[in-house]
Amino acid sequence: MDVVKPLPRSFYNRDTLVVAQELLGKLLIRRFSEGCIVAKIVEVEAYRGRDDPASHAYRGETPRNLLMFGKPGFAYVYFIYGNHYCLNVTSDQEQVPGAVLIRSVEVIEGSKLAYRNRKAKSLVNLSNGPGKLTQALDISKTHNGLDLTKSGELFISTSRTCEKVETMITKRIGIRAGIEKPWRFYIRNSAFVSRQ
DNA sequence: GAGAAGATCTCCT
DNA sequence: GGAGATCTTCTCA
After folding, report:
1. pLDDT at A109
2. Which positions on chain C have an atom < 7 Å from some protein CB?
3. Residue A38 located in a structural domain
4. Which of A7, A49, A147, A181 is surrounded by the fewest CB atoms within 10 Å?
5. Is A24 helix (H, G, I), strand (E, B) or coil?
6. Average pLDDT in the A72-97 region?
7. Which residues contact A7 (CB under 8 A, 6 or more apart)?
8. Terminus-to-terminus CA distance in chain A, angstroms?
9. What is the pLDDT of residue A155?
10. Separation of A78 CA and C11 C1' (Å)
11. Which residue has the higher pLDDT, A15 or A2?
């Protein structure tokens, strides 16, 4: 696992829609003292700024969404519905709000650790949803603002398999505004996608 | 300071 | 398929 390097800042410093699509198939690495969990990103959604009424950044800068306006390549974690955390990655250049919501992942290594964090009936059920994957990977508010270009306890790396992913593009899920924008991307035929 | 809404999940019917 | 859980954040007075 030592050969795995985080994606550079330049990867995130692009249009949010491009970053979102290219994150598919990449590996999310979560390190613990006992070992690490490696999970493939299979489903994401893009959120932008002024042109996106579903985005937290739509109404302008607030203490909560400050990270979306800052440098790309940082974790933006927020609490929702009184129960769940959602993991986002900030994107686009500084002062241009943008973030990619990671909706579901496929745990490839370290499933024992993931099951310890989250009791689930199957591997699919372990991480096929925004709230589920943050539970399985033990991601919470403490990771808000974490630099994902540093090789720390949480970062994203390129896939070692270099497999080609077939991307499906659909409308986003679970939102009321901006539903017409086709900014949800997932890997075709993946059983780990929250909704086909 | 109060009220309302929310990028979800699980349980129950 | 529907509703409850539960709490942070924002808006408005």
Report:
1. 95
2. 5-11
3. yes
4. A147
5. coil
6. 95
7. A26, A73, A148, A149, A155, A156, A157, A158
8. 32
9. 96
10. 19
11. A15
CA A57/CA A40 separation, integer angstroms: 27
Q: What is the percentage of chain A residues whose pLDDT exceeds 70?
A: 96
pLDDT given at position A159: 72
Q: How far is the CA of A96 from the C1' of B12 (A)?
A: 45
Structural domain span for residue A173: 9-187
The predicted-structure confidence for A144-181, as pLDDT tens digits, reads as follows 999 999 999 999 998 766 577 899 999 999 998 898 99
Q: pTM (2 decimals)?
A: 0.94
Q: Which residue is nearest to nucleotide C10 (CA to C1')?
A: A62
Tally of domains within chain A: 1
Residue written as token pair 């990655």: A89
Distance CA A144 to C1' C4 in A: 28
CA dist A171 → A5, A54, A78, A143, A148 (Å): 32, 12, 22, 28, 27
A193 domain-assigned: no
* Nucleotide nearest A141 (Cα, C1'): C8
> Which nucleotide in the DNA or RNA is closest to residue A84, CA to C1'?
B8
Q: Enumerate residues near strand B (beta carbon within 7 A).
A: A 45, 47, 54-56, 68, 79-84, 86, 88, 99, 101, 118, 120, 125, 129-132, 172-177, 194
- Residue A88 in domain: yes
CATH number at residue A154: 3.10.300.10
